[in-house]
Design brief:
Oligomer: single chain
Number of helices: 4
Radius of gyration: 11 Å
């Protein structure tokens, strides 16, 4: 799966789950600093992705999820 397609899926998820403004969600947007995602919301996003794509995301990999693009790239490579 391409990263741009995965980005759109992650963006849709953030809009639905966290009710974020679509305008602020870009591949370079930082989950915590730009979008205000807290640790519980991040954990929910990770669990949602694991369930949806039937994968297990390692804790060490989660530490590298700084931007929305980081999550999209990871999922694109690991699904």
């Amino acid at each position: 799966i391409r990263s741009d397609i995965m980005f759109e899926e992650i963006k849709d998820t953030l809009i639905k789950q966290l009710e974020l403004d679509p305008e602020i969600i870009t591949p370079d947007a930082e989950l915590v600093n730009d979008l205000g995602v807290n640790s519980i919301e991040l954990a929910d996003l990770i669990m949602y992705c694991e369930d949806k794509y039937d994968i297990e995301i390692d804790d060490d990999d989660i530490k590298n999820f700084i931007t929305v693009g980081d999550v999209a790239d990871y999922l694109a490579k690991n699904i």
